[in-house]
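Schema walk-through. Below, the input block comes first and the output block second. Nothing else is stored per chain. Lengths vary across the set, and this one has 393 residues.
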Amino acid sequence: MLSITMLATIGVYTSRAAPSRSTSTLEVPKFQVDPSWPTIPDGWTLGQVSSVASDAQNDIWILQRPRTVKPGTKTGPPVMEFNQEGKYMQGWGGPGSGYDWPEIEHGIYIDYKGFVWISGSGNEDQVLKFTKDGKFVMQIGHGGHAKTNSNTEDFWKPADVFVYSKTNELFVADGYCNKRVIVFDADTGKFKRMWGAFGNVPSDTPPAPTCGGQSGGRRGPDLNRTLATEFDPKDPGSPQFITVHGIKVSRDGLVYVADRGGKRVQIFTADGKYLSQIWIDRWCETTGDGCGNGQTTASVAFSADPEQRFLYVASRSPARVWVFDRQTLRPLESFGRPGIGPGEFDVLHEMTTDGMGNLYTTEVEDGRRVQKFVFKGIVAATVAPGPIPVIAK
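--- output ---
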């Protein structure tokens, strides 16, 4: 089992293996939280920070929810851009002419052409595309249509978005109420294809919990617990996604889907062929273990090296980030714990990396912040051997 150890330097966390007769030395990325990043201007108070993205210049964009601050509290715009030093650069967003701004801001992504994409998790049917200065470009999906998985023109609470540069395609994690990955041409908004868990046809029969559940939770009493023995390792889990919450496409064309309610990452080809899945803190039950409603896999991200050697997975209720070898899917370490201090997490939500390898995380509900974890290089770590938590089809 892996355990979390806080180093003497405040905010630096690493993982060490329990003693074993046979261990192997592996390389893992090392991070140090920057508690002073970013600088919020003008006395603003952030609302819930739902998402974070990095652009080609390594500026960092956050999407926050101004309507979640207390009445009379001064806050900034929904979209906010910061530089590497944490200085506020610009901001925009909110209702405007020609488009439907989301009731609840949820996902943000900056594509390889510099366009800004926004999704929402209210009763949303749309995804929005803007220029970096906030000029409206395109809306995919509109209200007033059938909210079903068979609808190829609209969404139902889409959670996350990603544009794959090699095919110029928009991948949408759709999401809270629909149970699918759906793909569009990023220039025209034309529908291309879609799929559900394991590559199945997405079903309108809602698995438990039903759509809309967004409550948080905490880790159970055993901080080292990762996989519960009461689960049959051959059990593949729900044949449909529970909550399609996060999506990223690697440079080699693999699609990583964070099924938050399903407590797993599923991996596909860009055409939707199912490859494998990783369980993330499957021990997190719906009741009785301090895990709230049992939500774990909130978001995924990749290391910044050309091969994207490491896969990062944000585990919401257990309040930690897992690090995997992306090729073998072997878990290497995890860091974080529940709390409001630097390097701790209170309702971990979305994350991303920039071109220098730094990792950024966001928190909603009472967390209401973005944190920067500065990449400090690759270090050796001793990891006890064990089964890889992957089920391949």
